[in-house]
Write a structure and sequence with these properties.
Number of helices: 13
Mean pLDDT: 97
Strand content: 5-15%
CATH topology of the largest domain: Rossmann fold
CATH superfamily of the largest domain: NAD(P)-binding Rossmann-like Domain
Number of domains: 2
CATH architecture of the largest domain: 3-Layer(aba) Sandwich
Shape: globular
Distance between the termini: 55 Å
CATH class of the largest domain: Alpha Beta
Helix content: 40-55%
Radius of gyration: 20 Å
Length: 290
């Protein structure tokens, strides 16, 4: 199996930037593209990689192209648009989408790439910005086992827990479900924080006992103090969490499952987004609870 050494990375946002940086540190020959003017050039100068003017330019000569963008329309545009990466990826190349999108969209994208003889793998991630920066992401891969094995060295540069969940679509469904669990947990935490504030309980004492109880969770660790302090600097944007919850509700509904708690969470996140908190961290769900 040929080792992948030349990689195009498309999307340098809150998650994509540090993920691409970890690939560069791993010694890969990297070409980067992002929608924001000047960002790819600044990244390239800092990390010693090549900035590309378009996704097609980034993918020229690459053995693999990674997309890390907000949702399926952006994935499709990056791959299949007028200057999309699929136009210059050669037959037998690997496309890896590490965005979080609907499983149905992932399967359709894979089908389109297969027509061009390009292998496709989904690899959505969990761990927010700290995990992306530290290279400790959880990566949920969906697709053919052979494609997973090819991508594994790339995943190992970015993540710590790497799981081949199953065929195409299964990685995305696992990610949507885990994010919805996180969204529901954060909403419950927000209610607790508000009650602590109204009851006059010491926030530090509450966080300490909660961390040693059944309430302990990554959400508590990352969001509890931030909610008390109204610190909503984005580690994972609320608008992206809302998008993921909505995708999850749609996929579950198609399977005949009514995610009632997920539906309640969607209402809170939608309210917070409508009130102008979409670009902030999803800890800002507390604004809707308040």
């Amino acid at each position: 199996m040929e080792r992948i050494e030349r990689v195009a990375f498309c999307g340098l946002g809150i998650m994509g930037g540090p993920m691409a940086a970890n690939l560069a540190r791993a010694g890969l020959e990297l070409s980067v593209w992002t929608r924001t003017a000047g960002k790819a050039e600044r990244f390239a100068a800092e990390h010693g990689v090549r900035a590309a003017a378009t996704p097609a330019d980034a993918a020229e000569g690459a053995q693999a192209a990674i997309t890390m963008v907000p949702d399926s329309p952006e994935v499709e545009s990056t791959l299949f648009g007028p200057e999309g990466a699929a136009a210059t990826l050669g037959s037998g190349a690997l496309a890896v989408d590490m965005s979080t999108i609907a499983p149905t969209a992932a399967r359709a994208i894979g089908d389109r790439l297969a027509e061009r003889r390009i292998d496709f793998l989904e690899g959505p991630v969990s761990g927010s910005r700290p995990g992306a920066e530290n290279g400790t992401l959880t990566i949920m891969a969906g697709g053919e086992r052979a494609a997973f094995e090819r991508a594994l060295p790339l995943f190992e540069a970015m993540g710590e827990r790497i799981v081949h969940v199953g065929p195409r679509g299964h990685g995305q469904l696992a990610k949507l479900l885990t994010n919805t669990i996180g969204a529901v947990t954060a909403a419950a935490l927000a209610e607790a924080v508000l009650t602590v504030e109204r009851g006059g309980v010491d926030p530090d004492a509450f966080l300490e006992v909660a961390a040693g109880s059944a309430a302990a969770s990554t959400v508590l660790t990352l969001k509890g103090r931030r909610m008390f302090e109204d610190d909503f600097e984005p580690l994972f944007k609320l608008e992206h969490m809302l998008k993921d919850v909505r995708h999850c509700l749609d996929e579950a509904r198609a399977l005949g499952v009514d995610l009632r708690l997920g539906g309640l969470a969607e209402t809170l996140y939608a309210r917070a987004a409508e009130e102008g908190h979409g670009e902030e961290d999803f800890a800002a769900v507390i604004t809707a609870v308040r």
